[in-house]
Here is the input.
Amino acid sequence: MSATRIRPPIEISGRPLDYSHAAFGIPVVHAQVASTFAEVTPDALQLIPVEVDSHPAQHFILSTIRLEECIDDAACEEIRYRLPGNGIPEKVRTYSLVSGMRIDHAKVGGANVFRTWGWTVAVIVSEEIKEALERAGITGAKITDVTGPGAANGLCPLPVPTLVPKPYPR
Here is the structure.
């Protein structure tokens, strides 16, 4: 059996980005981003080689190992939950919308990179990873602080940013 790389469905118009999402919110990163993550936090993720059509550079699925139940519902701008009868029974009581996400850093346990339970759209990273990504000059990621006012209250000594995909440049 030959080893065939995964080919996630990614529609790219314009120039390729270092960080993007494939179907179902799966983060796909350029080799430079994968290397940055691997240097800072090698045991917290899996890097799965993939092929991206029409882009010869090496890419990886960025699979975080940790899933943390840490969203601070009261501090978020807006949240909505999936309710019974929405057609997806296994998703009942998970989030259908999280806007202006804030996390309770006390529930994170020192993780450098993770996704949040019930809302896996964003990849949450430590300040150390954020700074490494900024130094590398990656494209495609919007980094937003998710600790909010809690940092001033001693819940988080350093802000914890989140990575979300930016729209593709045209």
Remarks:
- The helical segments are 31-40, 127-136.
